[in-house]
Amino acid sequence: MNSSNRQGAIFAVLAYTMWGIAPIYFKLLQQIPAMEMVAHRVVWSFVLLAGLLTLRVGWQAISSLLREPQKLAWLTLSSALIGLNWLIFIWAVNNNRMLDASLGYYINPIVNVALGMVFLQERLARLQWVAIALATVGVTIQIVNFGSVPWIALALAVSFAFYGLLRKRVRIDGVSGLWVETALILPVALWYLFAISPDNIIMSEHSLTIQVSLIAAGLITTAPLLCFIAAAKRLPLSQLGFFQYIGPSLMFILATLFYDEAVTSDKLITFGFIWAALAVFSWHGLRSSRQPQQ
Fold it and tell me: Which residue would you say has higher pLDDT here, 111 or 186?
């Protein structure tokens, strides 16, 4: 690996590690309703990203975007998807469903491949078809034999996959794009905080510790994203993909070893098929990356 690749690998490990241990932060704020947590995440991410745009990135991309209504429309859809993804994830963590969240992010790369085939006319290799088939079998067994639909995992995987697909349609840097997305859902977040939040909760009614922790939601949201952007600039996607299993693996460890979530038989079977699918998926990616370019 050259210097740029090594830096990219470090940034990738940092990004996925932060995403993987993020449940610890949300567990500490378990008394805060999921919707309120998402609202604070939007508000403080908006503020932090505005500061980054002012001090480092600049507002040129935002100015250009305002003259392109089609791009704004795509970002409106992506903002709704990422907001939904945040809400489901926080709810899952705070309701002792972290294993389901972990499963969702294991499934996500396989859903990405499927969406690439359907919407981007990407051709799938034989091993990719095998990976998709294994993942489908695992989910189907849970639904048919155990009568339980892994809706949290599927919702997280599908919402984040479609979010990534929509973001591919908009040429804009990560910081500017995320700021626009948070700006689009900021009115909803503020409306909830000041009008709909249970017991009319506002920031001043929390303890100082909770206030500081809620403000930190902006950093929790943007820090791994910025590391991911830095990694993506320095690593080919074929290499970056191998780091994406760090996050759900850390979630799995946290759920089973630290938060006493039980690995029931239906989850164990589904995880087994998903892990097998990911092994096939990763082997295909590794083999493809080693083939000489024509």
Answer: 186
- Determine the Cα–Cα distance for residues 193 and 187; give it in Å rounded to an integer: 10
Cβ density class 130-143: b for 16+ within 10 Å, e for less: bbbebbebbbeebe
Please give the backbone phi and psi of residue 98, each rounded to the nearest 5 degrees, phi first. Answer: -65, -30
Give the angle subtended at the CA of 39 by the CAs of 230 and 42, to the nearest 5°: 25
Start-end of H helices in the chain: 3-28, 34-52, 60-65, 69-94, 98-119, 126-146, 151-168, 174-191, 208-215, 217-234, 237-240, 246-253, 265-290
Q: What tokens does 248 get?
A: 């759900």
**Alpha carbons 157 and 285: distance in angstroms, whole number:** 20
Query: What whole-number distance in Å separates Cα of residue 149 and Cα of residue 132?
Result: 18
Between the alpha carbon of residue 156 and those of residues 1, 91, 163, 266, 287, the distances in Å are 33, 11, 10, 19, 29
Domain hosting 131: range is 3-290
Structural domain count of the chain: 1
CA 158 vs CA 16, 88, 109, 151, 154: distances in Å: 19, 12, 10, 10, 6
The answer to whether 105 touches 247, Cβ cutoff 8 Å, is yes
List pLDDT tens digits, range 73-131. Answer: 999 999 999 999 999 999 999 999 999 999 888 888 788 878 888 887 878 788 888 88
% of the chain surpassing 70 pLDDT: 90
Residues 6 or more apart from 183 whose CB is under 8 A from it?
Answer: 46
CA atoms of 81 and 161, how far apart (whole Å): 9
DSSP 54: I
C-beta separation of 166 from 78 below 8 A: yes
